Every structure is written in C-alpha cells, then in structure tokens.
C-alpha cells in the first residue's frame, strides 16, 4: 500500500514498539502535512475546521456531500493500520475513480478526524465529538494531557482558536452520507474467509477514572499495618473489573493505564489513578456502577478514599440498515460484522446515514504492533470503497 509505506516510520515508538502519534505532536503534525500534500497533489481543496479536523474536497464544499476518511493519530505503541488505512484507502479510491473517468455528482470529501484515540487528552473521537457537540466545548477546553497542558493551550500552540471549538453546523450541514474504512480489529473476516465486510454495530463503551487517595510514605520505614496504600484498592479494582466483565454478556473491561503519584519505587503512593475502559451491548454504566461500589469498599478497607469520574461514554451504535444493505448490494453481499472498537463513524451515526467498511486483519490484533493487513486485502478495500463512493456520489 503505497500510502502506508509513505508514512511508515513517522511516529515509530522505539521504546514501546509500534507507533505513537498523538494530537499535535511532531508525528501527528508530519502526518497532517503529508495528508494535505497528498490531497493537494490530487487537486482536492483542503480546509481545517474549527475542531482541527482536516477536509479534502473533490468539488466545491457543499450540501449533499459524501464523506469518507478516518484518523491518523494512534494509541501509544499502536499498529500501522488503525486509522491511516482509512485515510490512505480514501485517497486511493479517489485515484481509482479518476482513472475510470468518474466525476462525482455530489461534493465528495476525504476527512481526517482529530484525536480519535484520545491518546493525548483521554477522550476518544474528540474531533468528531466536538463537531457534533457530543462533548461540552468548555469541558473539552479544560481537558489536560499527561503533562498538565490543557486542550485550549494545545490548540493555541497549534495555531487554532480554542474559543471556536464546538458543534460545527457548517460542516454537518454539508454531509449527506459518511463511509469510514477501517482495518478490522478482530478476526471476523478471517473466519469468514473474506477480504472486506461492512459494519453492523459498534459496542457501547466509555472511559472512567478511579482516583484512589492514600497517604504517601516511606516504603521501608512504614510498617504494613500502618499504611493507607492506594495501590492496594487499585489492584483489587483491576481484578474486580475482569470478574465483572466476565460476568456481563459480551462485557469488556480493561485497565491499560495506571498512573501512580509520585511514582517512586521506594515510595508508598499518595494517589493512584485507575483508567478503566468498559464496554457492553447495553452500555457499560451498569458494570461501572457495580465496580464503583466495590471500589469504595476496597478503599475503605485500606483507609483510603476514591473518586470516580466518567470521562467519555457512548451507547451501542447500530448502523443504518438501509445504507448497510445498500453497500452490501454494491459489494456482492459481503458479510455485515459487529465490532467492539469505537470509531468516528460511531459518533457521526447519531447525526447522518453512516456506514463502515472493514478490511481483513490476519492477526485480528489491534492497538499493538502485530496489527496487520496484507497488500492484497488493502487493495480489495480501496476498490470496494471506490465502488461504494461511485454508487453514493455517482
Ligand atoms: O478505543 C477504540 O475502540 C477506538 O480504537 N478508539
Ligand atoms: Mn483504535
Ligand atoms: Mn481507529
Ligand atoms: Mn475509526
């Protein structure tokens, strides 16, 4: 896949393996520049919206637009395909359509959504949530990254005006239909023996921060029965999360990020943040409510206290069945698969007819360096996207 080869190496994470590309960091800015260059090379007109999503237009921006694209940022140590494949495939689909002499009847846009992974400010799909107003702009401005910088400060440093972020009706009014292509995050297509599928649903998911407060102290000078060590209830919560998810139909709970304060090996922590990602078909709040009760007990047993903050939430998304089946018709009846992974398409589906295409991932692994798609399947994906765009914008 020429496009992916062109950006391979940008944001390569030597320590973690894989890629780390987060909002406005050097790697993400290089990818933004690369995308603008690729779009302009294709004669697409490029604009960055008030929420720093980038739009590349084939034809004048206007109502009735068919929109495709994805994101360029990654999780820490993520794979090469999650996000970029959707952007590269959209550019390749434009090339394929041009080669066939296709001219869109409607405006057609390739979009790069900002901070889809929430890798810097902790809220997934931040760019599409801001655009649709599904996150409060003031709350967003005050989101802090791991270095304590606010989104407002980061926007100013990027050259954007933090006062302008928020629901963008100019952008939304232009959109008629959205199709996001994405590497599959799972092995559904491997089991089907198919290179491409359409998406059926996205599992409801959210993120919560459990902050356990204890008493910082000396690791050696403090007897065990004289401690209020927040790491103890934090560890109990991690195990409880696994138990609770295992007991919830299709429930998933993950603690991939623990932040200890101050973080010294010979220091009993004064506070520990447990960042929980929880997902379930009926939304994950039921699970988290149960876990919150347990967390309070764990904390009390250790003479600690806990505060819980919901950082993001989304219900299960069922994609528009008419659009889903229209795409399946165009693509010779490819499978329609559920996914446990969130996407900007999931945010937009609340506002516009939206669909997704998946490309087979032989490892089924994502958010890790082992994520993969073969060149042949990537090509199948671009061709499928071109057929879909020709059907929708033709
Ligand atoms: O977390 C997710 O499901 C998505 O990859 N942002
Ligand atoms: Mn992802
Ligand atoms: Mn993604
Ligand atoms: Mn996505």
Automatic annotation (TrEMBL):
SUPFAM superfamilies: Bacterial exopeptidase dimerisation domain, Zn-dependent exopeptidases. The keyword Zinc applies. It holds the Pfam family Peptidase_M20. Zn(2+) 2 binds at residues 82, 117, 367. GO terms for molecular function: hydrolase activity, acting on carbon-nitrogen (but not peptide) bonds, in linear amidines; metal ion binding. Zn(2+) 1 binds at residues 71, 82, 182. Its cofactor is Zn(2+). Keywords: Hydrolase, Metal-binding, Zinc. Allantoate binds at residues 207, 266, 279. InterPro entries: Amidase_Cbmase, Bact_exopeptidase_dim_dom, Peptidase_M20. Binds 2 Zn(2+) ions per subunit. NCBIfam families: hydantase, PRK09290.1-4. PANTHER family: ALLANTOATE AMIDOHYDROLASE (PTHR32494:SF5), ALLANTOATE DEIMINASE-RELATED (PTHR32494). Belongs to the peptidase M20 family. This is Allantoate amidohydrolase.
């Amino acid at each position: 896949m020429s496009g992916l080869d062109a950006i391979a190496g940008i944001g390569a994470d030597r320590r973690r393996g894989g890629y780390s590309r987060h909002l406005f960091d050097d790697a993400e800015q290089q990818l933004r520049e690369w995308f603008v260059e690729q779009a302009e090379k294709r004669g697409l007109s490029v604009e960055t919206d008030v929420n720093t999503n980038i739009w590349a237009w084939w034809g004048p921006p206007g109502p009735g637009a068919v929109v495709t694209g994805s994101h360029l940022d990654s999780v820490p140590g993520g794979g090469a395909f999650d996000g970029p494949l959707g952007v590269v495939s959209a550019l390749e689909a434009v090339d394929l359509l041009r080669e066939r002499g296709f001219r869109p009847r409607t405006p057609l846009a390739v979009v790069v959504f900002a901070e889809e992974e929430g890798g810097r400010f902790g809220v997934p799909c931040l760019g599409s949530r801001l655009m649709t107003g599904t996150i409060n702009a003031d709350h967003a401005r005050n989101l802090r990254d791991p270095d304590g910088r606010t989104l407002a400060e980061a926007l100013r440093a990027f050259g954007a005006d933090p006062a302008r972020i928020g629901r963008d009706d100019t952008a939304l009014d232009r959109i008629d239909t959205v199709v996001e292509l994405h590497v599959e995050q799972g092995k559904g297509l491997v089991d089907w023996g198919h290179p491409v599928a359409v998406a059926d649903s996205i599992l409801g998911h959210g993120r919560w921060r459990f902050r356990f407060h204890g008493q910082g102290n000396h690791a050696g000078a403090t007897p065990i029965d004289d401690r209020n060590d927040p790491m103890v209830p934090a560890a109990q919560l991690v195990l409880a999360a696994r138990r609770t998810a295992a007991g919830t139909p299709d429930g998933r709970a993950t603690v991939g990020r623990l932040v200890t304060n101050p973080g010294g090996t010979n220091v009993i922590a004064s506070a520990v943040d447990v960042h929980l990602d929880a997902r379930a078909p009926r939304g994950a709040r039921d699970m988290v409510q149960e876990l919150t009760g347990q967390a309070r007990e764990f904390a009390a047993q250790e003479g600690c206290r806990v505060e819980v903050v919901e950082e993001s939430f989304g219900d299960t998304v069922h994609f528009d069945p008419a659009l889903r089946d229209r795409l399946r018709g165009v693509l010779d009846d490819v499978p329609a698969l559920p996914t446990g992974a969130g996407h900007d398409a999931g945010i937009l589906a609340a506002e516009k007819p939206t669909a997704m295409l998946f490309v087979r991932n032989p490892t089924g692994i994502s958010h890790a360096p082992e994520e993969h798609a073969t060149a042949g399947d990537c090509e199948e994906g671009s061709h499928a996207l071109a057929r879909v765009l020709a059907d929708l914008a033709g």
